Amino acid sequence: MAARSRPRAGPLKDDSADAHEERNMWNQIVNDLKRLKTIQTRASEVSKSIVDMESKMAEPPTLAQIDDLQDLYREGLKLAEEELKILNEEPNDVIKNVGILTALRTASEIEPRNASQGKSRNPKRQKLDTDGTVDSPGPSPSVPNSASKLKAEKVRSGSVPTIKEIKEVKEPVVKTEEGSEGVKGPSAEKAGKFFIGAEVAYKLATKPKEDPQWIQCEIINMDTVGNKKRYEVQDPEPDDNGLPGQIYKAFAHALIAIPSADMILPDYPVGKQVLARYPETTTFYRAVVTVVKKDVYQLKFEDDNENEMDVTRRYVLDLSAK
Questions:
Q1: Which of 46, 135, 188, 199 is 20 to 30 A off residue 31, Cα-Cα?
Q2: Beta strands in the chain, from DSSP E residues, in sequence order
Q3: What is the pTM of this model?
Q4: Which of 90-94, 201-205, 241-245 has the highest mean pLDDT?
Q5: Considering only CA atoms, which of 176, 169, 198 is closest in space to residue 256?
Q6: For the chain, percent of residues with pLDDT exceeding 70
Q7: Closest CA to 198 of 233, 223, 247
Q8: Got the DSSP string for 254-316?
Q9: Which residues, 6 or more positions from 287, have their beta carbon under 8 angstroms from its beta carbon?
Q10: CA dist list (Å): 199 to 49, 109, 143, 147, 224
Q11: Which residue, 40, 39, 67, 43, is CA-closest to 53?
């Protein structure tokens, strides 16, 4: 093939039906929010009237004043009930519908990246200049030997929220090349390789039985979920409107550290299977080392018509590294 890149968002097989569903849901949400605004405006007026009436009531209040006050309280209660129905009950259920619409939009943005059947990588994308060094926040702690790691995810993508099933599994110990230890998953996390500003390869959510899709990202934030660190990583490629790239949330098992330019890089032998950034893109694919050069590896990418291409050494990653 002539070129590879991550496909931009484009129509799916049933995109017209999905778009129609999303548009209808959005219109309903907008109309419900307008109703909420009207209700809240009236509720504010009723509340003010109650305060004013109570401050002006005679001692003791007259029956007429009590009746008027009761009417205002009843109206306020009715408005509150209407607001709750719009927010939480069918057929409106604004809170639920906003969540569903968010999931639909997220799925429709992620799926085109995963829809490259036969590993089609068109249209071609320009790679970003990301060769600058990134300073580590401190020395890396030692990495304990471990026979287990968090293994990848089963993902269901489409017009529903993505679900990740993370489980611990045993894996055989794999010998790694010198310099490549602790670059992947929990081992890299323990080695201090994942920090704000660090460049990583991030594994996108894919459908079952699809090959993993890896893209270049930068860690922009970290938090903790339970006893695990969770990372926010950002796609360096702007979207179609020129806005900053999409942000994803990921745990360590979905990340591989990209070494900075000043690090000692591992030496891979000819025949080594690697994960490498395809030239002029920000997407990583499986490849085999065919020639070792000073600053680059010559690689043969999978399903690329036997073409061999040079890739900068730091963008050639060890898939077998722990």
A1: 46
A2: 148-155, 164-170, 199-204, 213-225, 228-234, 247-250, 255-257, 273-277, 283-292, 296-301, 308-312, 316-318
A3: 0.47
A4: 201-205
A5: 198
A6: 68
A7: 233
A8: GEEEPPPTTSPPPPPPTT-EEEEEPTTSSEEEEEEEEEE-SSEEEEEETTSTT-EEEEEGGGE
A9: 273, 274, 275, 276, 299, 300, 301, 302, 311, 316
A10: 58, 22, 20, 26, 20
A11: 67
DSSP three-state, residue 63:
helix
Six-digit token string for 257: 């550290």
* d(C-alpha 22, C-alpha 96), whole Å: 14
d(CA 18, CA 173): 45
pLDDT, one tens digit per residue, over 178-196 is 455 557 888 888 888 899 9
Q: What is the pLDDT of residues 77-102, one digit of tens each?
A: 999 998 888 888 876 778 877 877 77
DSSP structural state of residue 53: H
In the predicted structure, residue 221 carries a pLDDT above the cut 90: yes
Query: Can you read off the two tokens belonging to residue 272?
Result: 């080594």
Token pair listed for 307: 């073409």
Confidence at 107, pLDDT banded by 50, 70, 90: low
CA distances to 23, 160, 267 from 100, in Å: 12, 7, 47
Measured from the Cβ of residue 182, the count of other Cβ atoms closer than 10 Å reads 21
- Supply the DSSP symbol for 136: -
pLDDT, tens digit, 9 for 90 and up, residues 296-315: 999 999 888 878 999 999 99
**Contact residues for 100 (Cβ-Cβ < 8 A; gap 6+):** 25
